[in-house]
Automatic annotation (TrEMBL):
InterPro entries: TPR-like_helical_dom_sf, TPR_rpt. It comes from Maribacter cobaltidurans. Residues 1-21 form the signal peptide. Pfam families: TPR_6. This is Uncharacterized protein.
């Protein structure tokens, strides 16, 4: 019985060391991101392997102008976490920034249906109309504002 208890204590200690080792990693990456040292932040975030770190990697790539990698990172997040709206929204804005209007239209159409009362999404969606220069699709959720 004493041996099992000792193994259990050793296991708990190892798990706690692992958890505490990850916390400073995330904080260091956040600090680097905040001061604009995006490349180093990306390197550290990539070691964390969390959803939050993946989102920050996408944001960092976007900030340094590496839109191809930012799009790939956002698309991966959207595909693996379909319920998350933040990466979907940010990917839609990036599609607009890179003039990929049909892809932006698809994302914002989905977002407007999921969260119809969000003025920011509706505003961007409306601006997209001007970019596409087409009024063939409708604003069914505008009335809810």
């Amino acid at each position: 019985m004493g041996k099992k208890k000792n193994l259990w204590i050793i296991f708990l200690i190892l798990v706690s060391f692992n958890i505490s080792a990850q916390m400073p990693l995330s904080q260091k990456a956040d600090s680097l991101y905040t001061i604009g040292n995006y490349i180093q932040a990306i390197n550290i975030y990539s070691k964390a392997g969390t959803v939050k770190s993946s989102l920050q990697i996408a944001r960092a790539y976007n900030a340094i102008g590496n839109f191809e990698k930012a799009v790939a990172q956002y698309e991966s997040l959207v595909n693996t976490n379909p319920a998350m709206e933040t990466p979907r929204f940010e990917l839609g804005k990036l599609y607009l920034k890179t003039k990929q209007y049909p892809l932006a239209k698809e994302l914002f159409s989905t977002l407007v249906q999921k969260v119809p009362r969000t003025r920011n999404i509706i505003s961007i969606w409306g601006n997209l109309f001007g970019k596409l220069k087409t009024w063939t699709w409708q604003f069914p959720h505008i009335k809810t504002l």
